Amino acid sequence: MSALQNNLNAIKERIHQAAIACGRSAQDIKLLAVSKTFPAEDVRDAHSLGQTCFGENYVQEGVAKVLELKDLRSSLEWHFIGPIQSNKSKDVAENFDWVHSIDRIKIAQRLNDQRPSHLPPLEVCVQVNISGEASKSGIGPDELLDICQKISAMPHLHLRGLMSIPEPTDDVQSQRKSHQQLRELLSQLQKSTALDHQKIQLDTLSMGMSSDIEAAIAEGSTMVRVGTAIFGKRTYL
Ligand SMILES: *Cc1c(COP(=O)(O)O)cnc(C)c1O
């Protein structure tokens, strides 16, 4: 068995066990394979092993991979999970199915305006800065309702939920605490009468990476974003 196959089996088993441990079904947790820094051939291999959802962080690299794997396009789901600069938003709008990292109204507006009309609306999550650090991207919890209202009025974006990248820590209780905060924010939005729920589908909590999927799943994650545990350690050139 290849290392990739082993890794995919192992991560699926971790998701399964974590789901069982908190009385959830593993089917409610989507596995996003984060392929940043790895070549298109690795994505092709993972796809041949049944993996369909892939996440990319860097626009240029991601778009190159989407194009290189054009022959598989209809059976792949491409998620953009990295920071988006204004001058790169068009490439994201034209090539991806999902964007997890919306943290400014300006970027949402550009993605909406640049989404080609022959494609379905872009599925989007708003990235929230839970820990409140100035250095990290993500919108503050107090600005969340406003951006969600504005996105819900954009016809080429379909609001699906929230995403976060908490401060890395080995302490499971701290991991759970930040995931719990994101879950509570989603739950408030789901109940909010200030949002037009016909136009949005708040069913997604994109949280949990290689080292904290158990804590994320225990707190309600519906999509875990896993790179290292699937493709191995990244080397940046
Ligand atoms: C790189 C990255 C991941 C995957 O991280 P691993 O620790 O390698 O699993 C997940 N989410 C985002 C936003 C990332 O940039």
Automatic annotation (TrEMBL):
GO terms for molecular function: pyridoxal phosphate binding. Its cofactor is pyridoxal 5'-phosphate. SUPFAM superfamilies: PLP-binding barrel (SSF51419). Keywords: Pyridoxal phosphate. The modification N6-(pyridoxal phosphate)lysine is found at residue 36. It comes from the Bacteria. Residues 7-233 form the Alanine racemase N-terminal domain. HAMAP family: PLP_homeostasis. Pyridoxal 5'-phosphate (PLP)-binding protein, which is involved in PLP homeostasis. Belongs to the pyridoxal phosphate-binding protein YggS/PROSC family. NCBIfam families: YggS family pyridoxal phosphate-dependent enzyme (TIGR00044). This is Pyridoxal phosphate homeostasis protein. It comes from Polynucleobacter cosmopolitanus.
